[in-house]
Amino acid sequence: MAGDPYGELGVSRTASADEIRKAFRKLAKKHHPDANPGNKASEETFKRLSAAFDLLGDPEKRRKFDAGEIDADGREIMRGFSGDPFRQQGGGFHSAEFDNIDLSEILGEMLGRGGGRGGGGFPSKGSDVRARVEISLEDAIRGGKTRIAFSDGRTLDVTIPKGAMDGQVLRLKGQGGPGRAGHGDALIELALRPHPLFRRDGDTLVFDLPVSVPDAVLGGKVQAPTPDGAVALSIPKGSNSGATLRLKGKGLPVGQGARGDLLARIIVALPDGPDPALERFAEEWRRDRPYTPGRRS
Fold it and tell me: In the chain, where does the domain assigned CATH 1.10.287.110 lie?
């Protein structure tokens, strides 16, 4: 990724980790390939955003970048010498020392343009390869392993970090194409696979929670599923379908070890099959206490 990762995300160099995370999620949602099918410009923008967040979202990588130890692609920066190149040492021969000078550019001009592409300059590093892999919600939360296959027939086991985010790009050093100066890197974009139970709404997960009529009317406790396992959930007395209960910190990973929330959407469910007692109760209720849902007297 050429350029400034701070500029790609539209944040200042003093932005907090939370500000960087929010900026990435906002832009990634706008430019994600799934939201812009066939739009190559958005696809390239999404790749740059992912690479920028891969660098700035990691505290150690960000520190190294800010200190000038690595470039925007995460590669180490080769530093020259410092000082006056013509400083005399004891009246003898002068020692040449250089600072902030691109020696490869100078030698490239001396030896002919072309650099590592046969022009006589420094050998070039191999090209990076890219792949996109779908991961489960459970692996995103708890971490895991998956195997990917490249077009050249190679396979690679990839470790999914705990708290992985949709759209996050993992950089695997030395797993790219070969070159005279070594292999390039493999850039693996993580895509969260749709879940059969939980729906995504930003950082939040939502699911439907069936509740019996007695529990909806009288209140009670029910077992509710979460990505971390079932939990006991209290149903308030007089709950209607569409009411939501919030389980904090049970949603999607949002970076820095934090997670969004999980919303349980109550669905009042009748018993399976006819129930004569319930039908009699409903007939009496309709006769003695009629009401129209959605209207307020």
Answer: 1-78
